[in-house]
Specification:
The protein has one domain. By secondary structure, it is mainly alpha-helical. The protein is rod-shaped. The protein has two helices and no strands. Helix content is 93%, strand content 0%.
Length: 100
C-alpha cells in the first residue's frame, strides 16, 4: 500500500513536469506561438524593411531636389551677376568712347 501511494504521487506530477519541460525546450509550442513565428513575424519584418527602403528613397529624393534647386539658383545668380558686370563694362566702354 505504501509503494502504491509513492508511485501515485510520483506519476501525478510527471505529466505537468513533462509538458513544462517540452515547452521550455521548444519542442511543444502552442498554435498561436507557431503562427506568430511562421507568419506574423516574417510579414512584420518585410513591412519594416519596405518602410525603411521607402524612407531612404524619400530622403534621397528630397536631398536631390534641394541640391538641384540650390545649384539652379546659384547658376541663375551667377548668370545675373555676369550679365550685370558685362553691362557695367559696356557702359564704361561706351562712356570712354563718348568722351573721345
Amino acid at each position: 500500500m505504501n509503494a502504491r501511494f509513492i508511485a501515485k504521487g510520483y506519476l501525478a506530477g510527471l505529466r505537468e513536469q513533462s509538458l513544462t519541460e517540452l515547452v521550455r525546450s521548444g519542442t511543444l509550442n502552442t498554435p498561436q506561438t507557431n503562427a506568430m513565428e511562421e507568419q506574423v513575424l516574417p510579414w512584420l519584418m518585410a513591412r519594416i524593411q519596405d518602410f525603411l527602403r521607402e524612407d531612404a528613397a524619400t530622403i534621397e529624393g528630397s536631398s536631390s531636389v534641394v541640391n538641384d534647386g540650390i545649384i539652379g539658383v546659384s547658376n541663375c545668380h551667377s548668370q545675373a551677376i555676369q550679365a550685370k558686370k558685362d553691362s557695367i563694362k559696356k557702359a564704361e566702354s561706351d562712356k570712354v568712347e563718348a568722351k573721345r
